[in-house]
TrEMBL record:
Record has ATP-binding as a keyword: no
Protein name from the UniProt record: 4'-phosphopantetheinyl transferase
GO cellular component, one term: cytosol
Keywords: Transferase
Amino acid sequence: MGERLVSGECLVWRCPAGPLPAPLHALLDDAEQARARNLGHDAARTRFVTGRVMARLLAARYADTPPRQVVFTSTCRHCTGPHGRLEVHTGAGVLHLSVSHSAERILVAIARDTVCGVDIERVALRGDRIPVSALSPVERRVLADLPQPRRLAAFIRYWARKEAILKATGDGLVLSPADLTVSAPDASARLLSWENRPPPHVSVHLSDLAVGDDYRAALATLGRPLSIVERDVDPLAEASHL
């Protein structure tokens, strides 16, 4: 029998983004394998494969089914394409999953009957300047008041929180992250306001995650706050239980 995922709880697995042995690639379905082949960069392909394998292992544990038989639905709410929020429908309800990866780290979150979105970002500059256009006017003022050495990490904190929310709602970057205002980087994570927010207006609950000094990460859940359990997981060790 699979383990029971308690209602009101969200489990977050942390794992390295390194390549997995070829036999584990066989856990992916045909569509996932095709998507992996179409990714142009080896590093991006590795992160995608490892993230999806971990999502399958996690879903299989709580759906009480072999990983290869896990059926994900992932319909985009904007275009109906197969790149929306991950769900697994079981006889005991719906498992909601979210996967994020950055550089050498991967996060996979799962909750029963509560939508979740997770995001992890490495504290590193992409391009030659911080893209403050992603921030609301309030957030820009907070960032400008910080000492220069603290601004990049603060921006990454803002970005991880916003993307976690947009992944949970299923909107992604179709919507402007600048329309969201979240709490200051050194304050407890909260969504303060959302301009031009599309319906449905479900309550958003936000938490920062522990991922070390070189990364920032956040988890958003819709409708109610969840108790968060974070675990470091070795994909090979987890697969050995199959």
